[in-house]
Amino acid sequence: MERWFLVTATAISVLLGAPPDAWAQDVVKIGLVHSMTGGLAPVGKQVMAGVRLYMQQHGDVVAGKKIEIILKDDTTVADMGKRLAQELIVNEKVHILGVGITPTAMAIAPLATEAKMPEVVMVSGTSAVTERSPYIVRTSFTLGQQSAVIAEWVVKNGSKKTVIVQSDWAPGAEATAVFTEAYTRAGGKILDTIKVPLANPDFAPFLQRAKDANPDTLFVFVPAQAGTFAKQFVERGLDKSGIRLIGPGDITDDNDLPGMSDAMIGVVTAGLYSASHNSPMNKVYVEAIKKANNGLRANFISVGGYDGMHLIYEALKKTGGRTDGDGLIAAMKGMAWESPRGPISIDPETRDIIQNIYIRKVENIGGELYNTEIATVEAVKDPTKAAKK
Ligand code: PHB
Question: I want to staple 273 with a disulfide (CB 3.0 to 4.6 A). Which of 102, 286, 329, 341 is the partner?
Answer without folding.
Answer: 341
